[in-house]
Amino acid sequence: MSSSTIMSASENPATSYLDGPRLLADVGGTNARFGLERAPGQIDSIQTLRCADYAEFALAVEAYLSGSEHPQVRHAAIAIANPVQGDDIKMTNHDWEFSIETTRRRLNLDTLLVVNDFTALSMSLPHLEQSHCIQVGGGRALSGGVVGLVGAGTGLGVGGLIPTEGRWIALGSEGGHVTFAPSDAREAAVLAYCWRTYSHVSAERLVSGPGIEMIYQALSDMQGVAKPEPLQTAQIVERALQGQDGLCMEVVEVFCGMLGTVASDVAVTLGTLGGLYIGGGVVPRLGEYFARSPFRARFESKGRFSNYLARIPTFVITAPYPAFVGVAAILSEHLGGGNAVPILEKIRKARDQFSPAEQKVASLILAHPRAVMSEPISEIARRADVSQPTVIRFCRTMGCQGLADFKLKLASGVTGTVPVAHSQVHVGDSSLDVGVKVVDNTISAMMEVRDNLNADTLSRVIEVLSQASRIEFYGFGSCGLVAEDAQQKFFRLGIPSSAYTDPQLQEVSAAMLKSSDVVVVISNSGRLRHLAPAVEVAVHSGATIIALAPSNSQLAKRAHYTLAVEHDESSMMHIPMVSRILLLLLIDVMAVGVSLNRSSPFAELQRQAKRGILTHIASLGESDSDKITAEGDGKPAQSKRSDQEVTLSPNVISHIK
């Protein structure tokens, strides 16, 4: 166990956080490092615990906190050497597995953020002291330029920082797994050696700690060494720096050249005019040798782009705990920056000043903040045993305009910075865990629908629906419920509409459609099957077909327009029918769009003109009306739907009889 203190000179550590110190952690496969940030930039009480000594991640946290003298910790941010997607964390290089939300509640935290360790390292760059970075070679950083990051350690990490609106956004990447490209004959021979074992050789395979051992084996083979001495990375580096082992010196030389190529590739790919930083555990061990190694020459060796790269500075990160600086910055931004007090802490501190009824609301929120975020006011009032006006009064006491505004501020202090993603529901999950995961899964799917909306298609769909003489909605099962919901919404907009959930009735109705009618076919699978006859008849009738279905489905290929709903519900267990929510969401989008479209002045003029034409037609004799064409399409206007020629399939005729 080790303990130390670090301080960032770029911050003002004079004032401690009003809500107490913040817990920071950097978790790897072997060690978990913990520290406390007591004020902006002031990180101390740093300790390193062996992961193998604790069966669970939460036990390691509890062990650290029990040995530190401090007030109750309310907020924590964790950098972990693992992908972070959703609530479940399962480490690839250790046996720890945990739920972020369950751990937050177990540790009695208001906030628990978990981010990838390379994301944290990227976010540390704008906050590092100058003494914690050593420039290698020339170049000058462009203020406000994109910053690149390459880290050689157990693996090869690649990342970047993009400046936007006064803040930095970390760019996630798996760039270490790009295909390795040799730059000379020697590296080509090393690659050929690797191909004996691996069909694909990534940059990480060679430009990393384990990669140094691979280079050593390859060069030994090239030099005809039958049984090379089994050396580990640390031993190879040590012998190379001592200058007494020619093979080890060549290995480190080759490694530094390869790293220069990778760094230059990242620089030209991202346009890192703000500088390129080297992190990880390997390069700092090379000390002064790295500055005179082939790294910088290889970095600038880019043919026609050599001058471009010569202007980009490269730095080696020497800070002892840069991940702490990064997660501290992420947590600070999440909580509002500076010395801002999150809303849960404000409630906790002001609790005694509330009225007895408001104290009941406060107790409920402090005990179940996530539940309150998703519940309506009636349920919040019921659970707190107060009236609904009391809930509103409490929100205004907290400086919010109402319940909606309060929930937004509450969500800012409870949820993490990691985008909501799919979280698998497991047997044995608590009721709250199930509720949180189902809600998170639904939100994630809704965000995906939002991001995949095609503006042109949506605009055209809304225009077609706005001009429709009649709209019919077809669906089965849960999609039938969506169809009935859609029919009610569009009927309220003054558009003649119907919903059919029976295949035979769908086919009968489709046969009586006109070219000015629209059919919205709803299917979470997009397979035609029972829908095929009705769709074909509707197409033959000249109606416009709009599909709410997966984009590459059979239905989508047959429809005129498709609003895509991509959600896999093939699992036989834990099916929350998220697709039904997504379909209802698209129905709402269309209904709101049509409502706005029909309420525009131009649309009202069109309707008035159309009503005038229909009134004129009604005043004419029957012989005259036959001569008038409908809306300029060159076809005789038909005033009665029964005048259309209808062709029905035999099974529908049988059904009618």
From TrEMBL:
Residues 624-657 are annotated as: Disordered. It is found in: Cytoplasm. Its EC number is 2.7.1.2. Residues 461-592 form the SIS domain. Residues 624-644 have a biased composition (Basic and acidic residues). It catalyses: D-glucose + ATP = D-glucose 6-phosphate + ADP + H(+). ATP binds at A25, D26, V27, G28, G29, T30. Residues 645-657 have a biased composition (Polar residues). GO terms for cellular component: cytosol. Coiled coil: none annotated. GO terms for molecular function: ATP binding; D-glucose binding; DNA binding; DNA-binding transcription factor activity; glucokinase activity. Keywords: ATP-binding, Cytoplasm, DNA-binding, Glycolysis, Kinase, Multifunctional enzyme, Nucleotide-binding, Transcription, Transcription regulation, Transferase. Gene3D superfamilies: 3.30.420.40, 3.40.367.20, Glucose-6-phosphate isomerase like protein, domain 1, Winged helix-like DNA-binding domain superfamily/Winged helix DNA-binding domain. Residues 341-417 form the HTH rpiR-type domain. The keyword Calcium does not apply. It is an enzyme of class 2 (transferase). InterPro entries: ATPase_NBD, Bacterial_glucokinase, Glucokinase, Homeodomain-like_sf, HTH_RpiR, RpiR-like_SIS, SIS_dom, SIS_dom_sf. It comes from the Bacteria. PANTHER family: GLUCOKINASE. Belongs to the bacterial glucokinase family. This is Glucokinase. It comes from Collimonas fungivorans (strain Ter331). The gene is glk.
